Amino acid sequence: MFLRRENDNDAARQRIADTDRQIELLTGAIGSSGAPGNARHCLDLAAIHCWHGRFQKTQELLTPLLQPTYPSDISLEARQLIADNQFRHDQYDLANRTYHENLVAARECGNEYWIARARDGIAWVLIDVGHFTTGEFSEASKVFEETLPLHRKHGMWVPEAMDIYGLSRAAAGNGDYNRSAELAQESIEKLQEHGGSRLLQFPLLQLANVYRDSGNFDKALPYYDQAIDAADDSQDPYMQVLVAYHYGCLLKWTKRKDEAREIWQSVLSIPADLDFPRLGSELCRGLAQLAEQRSNFEEAYRLQIDSQNYGNRVGVISHILQNQQMLLREAIHRTGQLEAQLSHLTAGVEASDDGIFVFGPPVSGVADESFLIQFVNEAGADMLGRKPYEIMHVLLNSVWKSPTSAKVVETSRNVYVSGHRQALDPVELEFRDGRRRWYAVRIAKIDDGIAWTVTDVTEREAMRRQIEAQRDRLTETNARLTAVDREKSEMLGIAAHDLRSPIGNIRSLCDFIPKDDAKTSELVSIVESSADALLVLIANLLDVERIERGEVTLNVRSMQVEPLIRRVAEEFYAVAAKKQIRVATWMADPGISVRADEGALLRILQNLVSNAVKFSPTGSQVEIRACACQYRIRFEIKDDGPGISDGDMKRLFRKFGRLSARPTGGESSSGLGLSIVKHLVEAMSGYVGCDSEIGAGSTFWFEIPRSTYEDT
User: Fold this and answer.
1) pLDDT tens per residue across span 271-283
2) Is 659 helix (H, G, I), strand (E, B) or coil?
3) C-alpha angle with apex 531: 526 to 533, nearest 5 degrees?
4) Residue 263: which H helix or E strand, with range?
């Protein structure tokens, strides 16, 4: 965002684009595994996210760098940046603790630079906490004076300039505005001298505030303008909100209240989006005051509550209490308006279809310690067959004598004693004429009595019972369908089992038929192919049946991957060669091992390679790949086939899920192979999937656990 519309120009947009590109490059360099592969890239990326107010992303990038496996300079910088991130989001206690932890770590390493940086951070906490409580400016000033020579010694001009800015803040906190202005000007010159425009908004805002707080508004205005431009240039959302808030204060004090409200409203969403509670509290408090001055008390109250919610997170309560007193005083003057609102509320209660009752405390000395009716609306009185005026200030047990009343009265006594709301929903009650209906009764304790809201839910309960009956019927139907499906699967399994032997015999007999002429040889070949396809289909059907019955037992063990892949490639060499398809293998590390059942893993690879060969065009290549991926081994079978459409993707891995594409050599496809693959992969605690693009081939992949040791 931009505080000033003119600052949104081509140069600014180019800077934002350059930053986005830098984030993209750093993110790519770190990798997608989640573990920081390059500590320096993680630090650089975290610094950008911290600057732009992205708290969670910053913490996620930096926390792993605190592990003892990283060099001390990496851990020190990461911890310091974590503390800076906490500080910018007003987590002062956490930031202070983290700065102290870094101070201890830096001292153990003897690193002067990080000792100074950690002490600077502690001083900044003193400055900001002091701003809201008692003021620790003198102690903070001592720290900055001690660390300033160290930064100069190491030629660190940015920390040097920021120390001078810190001394300016401390001087202003102690009331020395002249000294504060001199130091702020020195910090500005230091940053300008070394090309530090990215940080200029800090001392510029400080100088503007010094002149404003000392009553020199005309001298403050140009520095606020410069601070706004510098904040827009840096695209630091925290400083943009801070500059907008302080500039708005000046506008308010100089009677330019509409302008103050406009600039505060323009940045109001940032503290909520990026979690800046201190700034959110101050903005809402200022806007609440402006709303109160415009007699918009509803908006003032809402903003006051928002300010309180923000302030409670950083201990800012005194101003909130002042606002509450202000609003309460105003409320006294608005008694007439409140009475009008009460009149509207009463009209709404009277018009309600729900019965509303208000009772005094249980009356002692009467039967059952009944409740005295203090108020009842028209709907409530009608439930009892009376008019409201007839039962007002009458004991409940004298007008409601149904035995069902005991349920509600006893619960009401419990609510009166405990103070906890209760609801009877549903409860069957008889109010009059011997008719029992279903009601929802909500009971709450009020000042010194009990209130009921009684809603007739008879129609709702009738509908609920219909739904429950329908659900029971659906459950019964589903159970029958499940039984039918199980019976169908069993019959299919029996049929497949019984067909395997005769088809196997037919296949075997083909070997004994003389192939003396071309015609006979062609016919026998057709019979052999058909028998082979039927045997594969039957094997798949039996496998599916065994899987669905849970009869597949796996012997999971550690095994080498390379021999298995080589075996599958050799097995399909001849079949692929008939279509002039080359079967290639590739392994990132030939020594990797996997935990799997050998037969199941072999079956998975065979099914996937078989599919790849079936759907690949003549002269193409099928590639079998394997590589280690953290704690898993990833297998990929890539083909140059026609690719898979979006519609077919949804049917992949389903039983009998045939695709619109057809095998390129007229081979048969049962639609069971991928279903078996999915079941077997998941049985070995793995995942399976497919990446494909129409016209660019497909890559089927699966991942299963890596062996914790290598076979020898």
Assistant:
1) 888 888 888 888 9
2) coil
3) 95
4) helix 257-267
